[in-house]
């Protein structure tokens, strides 16, 4: 329709009629004279509205799904963050329990040996290939640490302090090839010198070539003059192999250390030496052997003969002769 004067007048007239009908409908209430017309319109246009609604509903549902999907994604991300935090907390708790156990074992050794120790954490480890086997700990001169102090943990001898800084110190591990410590055998008191061999067992040269040593015997530190660099009685390891003496003046042993040098975390530096040699009191209790059950089978003579059938063929007698 073109915009003319007549079309404008028609538009105004239709608007006026619409307002008049609305007014009549409102004033009529339930008895409105336009109810019939409204019902007829509903009958005509209702199916069309339902069809349009059915066509549009999937779009609306999709929009709602997208909106809800965003909410579900946010909730999923939140749950994933909570799970990650929980796993981290559990891991932290496991590590805390492990460190607490290490600390308890170290305090037990310190108490048994009457060593005054200062606890430290391993913050670095030296390379094993081409360099010394060393660790760096987080205490130093400001904490009273000095060169040539004994270092131990809850398992036994770790090493000795070689370099000291204001807040850190370097420890030469007992596994280092340049490391040597005087040792004493548990019980027999046989003396020797243990040397590191990297990731292999310690090599111990006993001063007595005729000493009676067997696999499973244990060693502790003998101690140094004025207890520097080694205090006495610190567990060293267990004999894993004994070389034949062969008439030599010394005897060679191979000792598996108590300490796992690749798993060091909490260590202690001995800052106060014991008043007397603790001897073997610091060694852990020996494990009790587990008894192996044995089964004894007794065979009664003649039992097999008694069980044989009476009509069985005798030795050397053929079946044909029996048939005859």
From TrEMBL:
From which lineage does this chain's organism come? Bacteria, Bacillati, Actinomycetota, Actinomycetes, Kitasatosporales
Give the Pfam families listed for this entry.
MreC
Start and end of every Rod shape-determining protein MreC beta-barrel core domain?
130-270
* TM stretches of this protein: none
Q: Where is this region: Disordered?
A: 275-324
Q: Does the keyword Iron apply?
A: no
Which species does this protein come from? Answer: Streptomyces cinereospinus
Domain of life where this protein originates:
Bacteria
Q: Where is the composition biased (Low complexity)?
A: 293-317
Q: List the protein's name.
A: Cell shape-determining protein MreC
Note whether Iron occurs among the keywords: no
The record's family statement is: Belongs to the MreC family.
What function is annotated for this protein?
Involved in formation and maintenance of cell shape.
UniProt keywords (A-Z) are: Cell shape
């Amino acid at each position: 329709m073109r915009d003319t004067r007549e079309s404008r007048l028609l538009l105004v007239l239709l608007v006026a009629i619409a307002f008049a009908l609305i007014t009549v409908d409102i004033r009529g209430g339930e008895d409105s004279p336009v109810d019939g017309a409204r019902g007829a319109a509903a009958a005509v246009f209702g199916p069309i509205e339902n069809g349009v609604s059915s066509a549009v509903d999937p779009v609306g549902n999709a929009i709602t799904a997208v909106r809800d999907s965003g909410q579900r994604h946010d909730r999923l991300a939140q749950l994933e963050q909570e799970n990650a935090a929980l796993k981290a907390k559990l891991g932290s708790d496991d590590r805390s329990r492990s460190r607490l156990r290490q600390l308890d074992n170290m305090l037990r050794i310190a108490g048994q040996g009457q060593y005054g120790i200062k606890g430290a954490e391993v913050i670095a480890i030296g390379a094993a290939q081409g360099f010394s086997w060393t660790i760096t700990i987080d205490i130093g001169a400001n904490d009273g640490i000095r060169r040539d102090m004994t270092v131990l943990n809850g398992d036994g001898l770790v090493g000795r302090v070689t370099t000291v800084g204001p807040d850190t110190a370097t420890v030469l591990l007992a596994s280092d090839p340049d490391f040597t410590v005087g040792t004493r055998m548990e019980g027999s008191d046989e003396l020797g010198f243990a040397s590191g061999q990297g990731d292999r067992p310690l090599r111990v040269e006993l001063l007595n070539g005729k000493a009676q040593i067997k696999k499973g015997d244990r060693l502790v530190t003998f101690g140094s003059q004025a207890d520097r660099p080694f205090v006495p009685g610190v567990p060293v390891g267990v004999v894993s192999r004994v070389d034949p003496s062969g008439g030599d003046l010394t005897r060679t042993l191979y000792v598996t250390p108590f300490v796992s040098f690749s798993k060091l975390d909490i260590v202690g530096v001995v800052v106060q030496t014991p008043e007397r040699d603790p001897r073997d009191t610091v060694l852990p209790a020996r494990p009790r052997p587990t008894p192996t059950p044995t089964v004894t089978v007794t065979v009664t003579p003649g039992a097999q003969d008694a069980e044989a059938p009476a009509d069985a063929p005798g030795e050397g007698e053929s079946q044909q002769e029996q048939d005859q």
